[in-house]
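TODO from last week: model D-2-hydroxyglutarate dehydrogenase.
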Amino acid sequence: MHELLESSQVVINTLIQSLLHDYKYDASQIKTDAESLEHWGKDWTKHFAPAASAIVFPKSTEQVQSIVLLANEHNIVLTPSGGRTGLSAGAVAANGEIVVSMDKMNHIGQFYPADRMVEVEAGVITQQLQQFADSKDLYYPVDFASAGSSQIGGNIGTNAGGIKVIRYGMTRQWIMGLTVVTGKGDILHLNRGMVKNATGYDLRQLFIGSEGTLGLVTHAQIKLERQPQDLNVMVLGMDSFNDVMNVLAAFQAKIDLTAFEFFDGVAIDKLMAHGQVQEPFESRTKFYTLLEFETPYEPIMDKAMAIFEDCMEQGWVVDGVMSQNITQAGELWKLREYISETISVFTPYKNDVSVLISHVPEFIEQIDHIVSSKYPDFEVCWFGHIGDGNLHLNILKPENMSKDDFFAECQIVNKYVFETVQKYGGSVSAEHGMGMTKKPYLHYSRSETEIDYLREVKKVFDPNNIMNRGKIFDIK
């Protein structure tokens, strides 16, 4: 039963009229047509049908505050919307919510050269920020496949990671300050960009990864980095997963890697069948890694080649290739970056989990055994950010099985997968957030006492439970 759909349309209309007449919204900032409700009411997940009541597009922090205050007054739930590239239904409005889209808050503001920091609005596209940093001969290192459409506010909401975490960390590491509107409608300026600030609790960190359940981020002050120099890419093939870990240890012992990505033979099979990328080398192996590292000095390249040759002599690497220029590096990256798009035609059921790097070999072995023994007709595709312990488990739908039946079976698989995650003290969501799809499994990574504390924190910032209700956990 969609409880929020029972809210009178009269109340929604009253709220909209207040925005238009009292809070300087114009007609272009509010949409209620069916096509818009469908488009802005969902993200990349397919598990929940969108059912928003209206879409609003604020242009300032004050306009965001106005919609929050009115939502509290009329007991209307708000769902924040960024680039809608999420994979956990965190931005899905399935119960008559009003969607607050940051599409019109997409400006890059003041740049602080001495601090290597820039202020941006929440609707700025990740790639837009990356291009701005490049124009200042700097670098924004948080990067992933959806960088061309994801928004900074959404990245902050899920503490987005991506392909460079092994060197640069998660989104959290780059947020120096936030402006937020809490669920109560208060405007807070958190940390104000400072490196050192020992004045009590750092509330900024609470909002990072909160998926819009505490309030709405409107601006962020973001640290930038020096540009990497002379990046080189290697793709290596191995027949044992233990050899993947041996190669990681060998390179990390002597070189600072900017990326260490992993994908399996199933991923390569699908990529080659799709025809968008070329075979990395003649041999087909069970596992592949993509390594990226800077080589500003010749001795670093010599060291990398020596490590590679040693890995070959040890029998860890069957074959390998290294980029000779920027174009070739880009082509090799496609082997990793095109996997999600390529397997999308198989309606994959995705799990985004993490464990300590030390546990990864046993973890993968146990999950493979679970799926192959209980569901022999399911094909599994592994890839992920192995250098930081983040694995993407993709179970591919058999051609002769309906989507509903397949998802139902995968829900059963989840129990065994997450019990294994819990066994190793891991996370059921490494970088995609909890949303609604992972919400039933929060207890596998957080104790009941922890979850109680999370609920109490939400009540402080959002006492009426109007902010993204039903995401991460339910309020008792």
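Done. Residues 403-423 form the longest helix (21 residues).
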